[in-house]
Amino acid sequence: MHDFKYREKDLYCEDVLIQDIAKEIGTPFYLYSYNTLRNHFLVFDEAFKDIPHVICFAMKANSNLSILKTLIREGGGLDIVSGGELYRALLAGADPQKIVYAGVGKTKEEIRYALKSDILMFNVESPQELFLIDAVAEELNCKARVALRVNPDIDPMTHPYISTGLKTNKFGINIKNALKEYKLAESLEYIEIDGIHKHIGSQIVQISPFVDALKKIIFLAKSLKDAGINIKYLNVGGGLGITYKDESPPHPRDLASEIIPLLSDTDYTIIFEPGRVIAGNAGILVTRVLYTKLSEEKKFLIVDAGMNDMIRPSLYNSYQEILPLKKNSASHKIVADVVGPICESGDFFARDRVIQDLKRDQLIALMSAGAYGFTMSSNYNSRPRVPEVLVKGKEFFVIRQRESYEDLVKGEDIPEFLLD
Ligand code: LLP
């Protein structure tokens, strides 16, 4: 469910006519619905109300401070993967005791920053990382709380670039070696073992991979207990998919009804790291048709957003629904490629899409763009990054300014020898 809906022929976000925002701030821009975002969080939270849990939003999906703040105010924690994300998380007011830190390549400086910030725990991805965390904790004379990220070797049946829980992926510690690595962790003086972490992939639209993976980590938790290692948290990661086109992913309630019974005789606190399911359908990218172009083979709609603003179609061949902000009266449809202005053939949002016959200057929305949209954008082709806007009820707020040309060269220096 989301709050981007037509009234008559016009697309609204909550109670705001989206074309009005475009008039005021120009295009392209990302647009988020506060109500949708908040609801997605509350629905997830409600689904698991019968078990102790913490929802740590995977902020790689959307790290805008106002988006984070919206979720933090509802009691959300955050899943981070870098020092930069930790900085944003703290600035947004996240409770450090609800921050979990994953990622295969944490640097010493990042580990120090996280320890000083007293985050809930690190999700450790290798024995070498464990040694480094122990050493940094010793320097700071504190205990580092950790979970080991185990790789349960489960096929999440999703796009290969976003599947993470197979033994051929770089993530985690092979579940077969987990007991050994937990014993290693136990032997380290400045490490406190608090949990098990797994995350098997993203845009998962079936329940069974979640169930199979959870069974494996519950089994591991029991083996740890037998070995005298008691943990408090099971972190089941994120990965629940959304509807981009015709997928019908499980509702968080369906997921809950399958996994809660598996936990019935345990008292673990469950950590969830949802990203896409919270933010994905809470955001869109609004862009303008600059030109229409007819080649011998194809019709192109050239729009003012490019792959630098939204890379998912180019990178994963993802489907993003495209809706006109104003529906035409005529029902005539065309087949067209919707492409951006970037100098690459891979710069497309849709290929051979059946779409309303759009003219120059008409506005369209790339739907389901709230997760992995702005966060994956870049300045490629020296294009300033686009603004982000949040709608709440009848009002809208620019929550990130459009970058300027000056922003593009910020921090660049020309050495003296080039100045003559
Ligand atoms: N936890 C960990 C450790 C993760 O690596 C991820 C996502 C998540 C949680 C959140 O997963 P979600 O609930 O959003 O599926 N850029 C890709 C998605 C990459 C996901 C990476 N990890 C895309 O646009 O589809």
Notes on the protein architecture:
The protein is α/β, with parallel strands linked by helices and 420 residues long. The chain folds into 2 domains: 4-32 and 280-408, Beta Barrel (Lyase, Ornithine Decarboxylase, Chain A, domain 1); 103-272, Alanine racemase (TIM Barrel, Alpha-Beta Barrel). The chain is built from 12 helices and 21 strands. It has helices at 18-25, 34-47, 65-73, 83-91, 108-116, 127-140, 178-187, 208-226, 252-259, 276-279, 312-316, 405-409; strands at residues 4-7, 10-13, 16-17, 29-33, 53-58, 77-80, 99-101, 121-124, 144-151, 173-174, 191-197, 233-235, 269-272, 283-294, 299-303, 322-324, 333-339, 348-356, 363-366, 388-392, 395-400. Strands 4, 14, 15, 16, 17, 18, 19, 20 and 21 form a 9-stranded mixed sheet that branches. An 8-stranded parallel barrel has the order 5-6-7-8-9-11-12-13, surrounded by 6 helices. A hairpin with a 2-residue loop joins strand 20 and strand 21 (395-400). Helix 5 (108-116) packs across helix 6 (127-140). The N and C termini lie far apart (60 Å). The model has no long low-confidence stretch (mean pLDDT 96). The site of ligand LLP has 22 residues, from helix 10 and helix 11. Residues 58, 61, 79, 102, 162, 164, 199, 202-203, 237-240, 273-277, 312, 316, 371-372 line the site of ligand LLP.
